[in-house]
Amino acid sequence: MDQTISVRVNDRSYDRSVEPRLLLSDFLRHELELTGTHVGCEHGVCGACTVLLDGVAVRSCLLFAVQADGRDVSTVEGLDGGTQALHPIQHGFWERHGLQCGFCTPGILMSLVPFLQENPNPTEEEIRDLLSGNICRCTGYQKIVEAVQLGARLIQEKSA
Amino acid sequence: MKPAAFDYFAPGTVDEALGLLADYGGDAKPLAGGQSLVPTMNFRLAQPAVLVDLNGIEELFFIREEEGGLRCGAMTRQRSVERSALVQRISPLLHEAMPHIAHSQIRNRGTIGGSLAHADPAAELPVLAVALDARMYVRSVTDARWVSARDFYMGLFATAMLPEEMLVEVAFPTLPSGSGWAFDEVARQHGNYAMCGAAAVVGLDGRRVVERARLVFLSVGEGPVEAEQAAALLVGEQPNAEAIRAAAETAATQDIDPVGDIHAGPAFRRHLARVIAERVLTRACERAAGTEGQ
Ligand SMILES: Cc1cc2nc3c(=O)[nH]c(=O)nc-3n(C[C@H](O)[C@H](O)[C@H](O)COP(=O)(O)OP(=O)(O)OC[C@H]3O[C@@H](n4cnc5c(N)ncnc54)[C@H](O)[C@@H]3O)c2cc1C
Ligand code: FES
Ligand code: FES
């Protein structure tokens, strides 16, 4: 039986009627056509589908859309805050070649937003610990670590 | 890779949730963090007809000190346990082990009760519960009971709970003074399920002789596996390197009987068990004696 839900995604409200079994990842991609959230494994391992639920990084493939009723979801599409300009973390990835095919990138970016808010000056070990939750098959991670370091610096410069 | 259809309920209280579990019996499953349940539903290994979502039940989210011990509501997120100063103070072993569970994005959602109820033999929390003599508060519409962690685990993904029962709360007693503790594990990659791991709790008497010892393994059997012979060997001994090595050897060769999988064969698991047992027993004894880091 369908249920009516109201979800805020990137500061915009959406009302939809959905089946309870619809995954949040599929809701975002198929219902809202926000295809920036990628789907790799659908069992929580790859991290490509990571989004923020009320500001907390979670796997959207392990949540049902009905569970997001009345909640705030942030996806990679909202990172620019409507400005069409790259977020400082995205800038770090651009500058340091933190991506090749880009499949893993949205999930990594969304994991990084709350991480760098809480921890503006992370050590390399802390960065690698965070990245352990996101699989990248292209870069070998070294460039991602450098991109995070630059992104962290850019955020600080921006707020200074 | 999509879950089968189910009916979804989001009760606001434990009583409502228990009512739903009673109404639907074995057809219904509680949904906690979903970090184990939803993957199995996506693979259609599990096809529950009814999901009872516990995420809106506020009374299940808490960490508090009670009767000198730690109490956690079943829905307390693993991330909250990891970051709680109260947990660090009252139950430092739990605090030490939490970051080994999965990745931060999984712990943000995964719950303490979900992991304890899931009874995965590779999971950390059931092992910690047995090592620390935790007690589970289990309720149904008609019944409420406390079950010791040792009696709670009944084998592969099996617990003492009936389908209409729910884990509501877990209590971790404070360790007596003179206790030391440690946790360690080996995984291919940080955050993956470990190939082997162990928790140790050791108590020394006034003469610094071991009077209590407990060593519990993960990933070497069908649930948390207690190394009873190793623990018995250590009791009455001075906690020196030789005694610890002998206990670790006994644990790896006598107490456990691991099977192999694609990640590690039985011989490798025994090797890991011996090395990890030696490490955790050493650290636990040092902590008990107050000589850690000396
Ligand atoms: C990529 C990945 C890596 C992981 N790595 C690890 C790891 O290294 N170590 C580890 O321990 N875990 C790991 N996990 C599992 C994770 O810790 C889960 O959060 C945990 O196993 C289940 O908790 P949950 O709250 O998500 O429960 P759910 O998935 O919602 O539920 C699990 C089971 O318990 C039942 N249940 C839940 N709550 C209750 C309750 N209160 N009463 C009765 N039954 C209940 C459910 O019906 C279901 O059968 C990993 C998961 C993923 C996706
Ligand atoms: S698609 Fe969600 S973690 Fe891989
Ligand atoms: S850039 Fe291709 S998977 Fe990471």
From TrEMBL, chain A:
Assigned keywords, A-Z: 2Fe-2S, Iron, Iron-sulfur, Metal-binding, Oxidoreductase
InterPro entries in UniProt: 2Fe-2S-bd (IPR002888), 2Fe-2S-bd_dom_sf (IPR036884), 2Fe-2S_ferredoxin-like_sf (IPR036010), 2Fe-2S_ferredoxin-type (IPR001041), 2Fe2S_fd_BS (IPR006058), Beta-grasp_dom_sf (IPR012675), Diverse_Oxidoreductases (IPR051452)
Pathway: Alkaloid degradation; nicotine degradation
A Pfam family reported for this protein in Swiss-Prot or TrEMBL: Fer2_2
Gene3D superfamilies (UniProt xref): 3.10.20.30, [2Fe-2S]-binding domain (1.10.150.120)
Protein name as it appears in the record: (2Fe-2S)-binding protein
Highest rank taxon of the organism: Bacteria
GO molecular function, one term: oxidoreductase activity
2Fe-2S ferredoxin-type domain mapped to chain residues: 3-79
Lineage: Bacteria, Bacillati, Chloroflexota, Caldilineae, Caldilineales
TrEMBL record, chain B:
Residue stretches spanning the membrane: none
Keyword Oxidoreductase applies: yes
Gene3D superfamilies in alphabetical order: 3.30.465.10, CO dehydrogenase flavoprotein, C-terminal domain (3.30.390.50), Uridine Diphospho-n-acetylenolpyruvylglucosamine Reductase, domain 2 (3.30.43.10)
Domain of life: Bacteria
SMART domains: CO_deh_flav_C
Organism: Caldilineaceae bacterium SB0675_bin_29
Keywords from the UniProt entry: FAD, Flavoprotein, Oxidoreductase
Gene Ontology molecular function terms on file: FAD binding; oxidoreductase activity
Domain annotation FAD-binding PCMH-type: ranges: 1-177
Protein name, per record: Xanthine dehydrogenase family protein subunit M
